[in-house]
Amino acid sequence: MTRFLLRKAVGMLGVLLALSLIVYAVFYIAPGDPAQLACGEKCSPAQVAQVRERLGLDAPVYLQYAHFLQGIVAGRDFSAGTGLLHCPAPCLGVSYRSGEQVTDMITARLPVTASLALGAMVLWLILGVGTGLVSALRRGRLSERLLTGLTLAGSSIPVFVIGLVLLIVLCAQFQWLPFPSYVPLTEDPQQWFWGLLLPWVSLALIESAKYARLTRSSMLETLADDHIRTFRAYGVSERRLVTRHALRGALTPVIALTAIDLGTMFGSAVLTESLFGLPGLGKLLVTSVGLIDLPTVVGLTLVTGFCVVLANVIADVLYAVADRRVVLT
C-alpha cells in the first residue's frame, strides 16, 4: 500500500505540473494584455508599464512560470505599491483584477463547492445504486421497465431545467423549501442543510440516472458469472448471494465513475452554482477566464486537477475493498 501511494503521489505531481504548463501556454497565446486588464481601460501606457513591472509580467514567460512554482513550494513576495506583500506557501499568485491572493480566494469558495458536490454525491449514489439494483433483480417485470424509462428520461434533462422547475414549484409556489443559499456548516448545520437541499436534489436527479443504468448492467453481468452460479448451486440464499458477493463486484465500475464525477464537479459545477447563486469554484473559474486572470485560472485548474487525481487514488483503494480480486500494484 505504501509503495502504491508513493507511486500515485509522484504521478499526481506530474499531472499537476503538466496542467499548469498547458494553462500557461494557452493564456500566453490568447489575445489580451493582463497588465492592461489589471490597470483598467483608462490607464496610460506609463501606468500599464508600472503595473506590468509590479506584477512581474515584464519577465520572460519561463521565469514567470519558475516564480509560480517557487511560490507553491516556498512562498513569494509581491510588490504592493509602497511595500511588499508576502504570499505564504502554497502560494498560487495574486489576482490581476482584485489583488487578492489566489489561495485565499479558493479557500473561501472551496467549502461551498465541496458541500455541493459531496451532498449531491450521497444522494445520487443512494438513488442510482438503489434503482439499478432493483431493476437488475426484477428484470423483465413491469417495475423494471418503468424504472428504466425513468432513468432514461432523467439523463436527458439538463440540470438547469430540473433546477428551475424545482425552484418554481418547491420554493416559489408551495414554499416547501427555502430558496438556496450557503451558510457554513460550522455556523448553523440546519441552515446549511436546508440551503443546499434543492441543489443536491437537482444534481442527484440527473446523475443518479446514469448510475442506475451502470449498476443495473454491472449487476446483471455479475449475476451471470460462474462463481455466482456455483454459490447458488450450493444453496446460498439469494439475499446473501446478492449483498455479499454479487453487489461487491458490481460496485467496481460505480466507484470509478463516482471518482471521476466527484473530482470534475469541483471545477464544472458552473451551471448549478450560477442557477442557485452559490459562490463556489465553478462560478469563480468562469469569471476568471473571462477576465484573463491568469493566476486565478491556473490556481483553480491545479485545485480541480488535484481533486480529480485524489478521487481516482481513493477509488483505486476502494476497488480492493469492494472486490478482493483487485490487487494494488
Strand order of the largest sheet: 1-2
Mean pLDDT: 82
Order of SSEs, N→C?
HHHHEEHHHHHHHHH
The chain-level structural class is mainly alpha
Helix percent band: over 70%
What characterizes the major β-sheet?
Answer: 2 strands, antiparallel
Query: Which spans of ≥5 residues are poorly predicted at pLDDT below 50?
Result: none
Radius of gyration equals: 24 Å
- Taken as a percent bin, the fraction of beta residues is under 5%
Q: Could you give the count of β-strands?
A: 2
Structure annotation, total helices: 13
Intertermini distance = 8 Å
- Overall, the morphology is globular
Question: Can you offer a commentary on this structure?
Answer:
There is one protein chain. The chain has 329 residues and is mainly alpha-helical. 74% of the residues lie in helices and 3% in strands. The chain contains 13 helices and 2 strands; from the N terminus they run ααααββααααααααα. It has helices spanning 2-29, 34-39, 45-54, 61-74, 102-137, 142-155, 159-173, 189-223, 226-233, 238-268, 270-276, 281-290, 294-322, and strands spanning 76-80, 83-87. It has a two-stranded antiparallel ribbon. Helix 5 (102-137) packs across helix 8. The longest helix is centred in the middle third of the chain and has 36 residues, at 102-137. The radius of gyration is 24 Å and the shape is globular. The chain starts with a helix and ends in a 7-residue tail after the last helix.
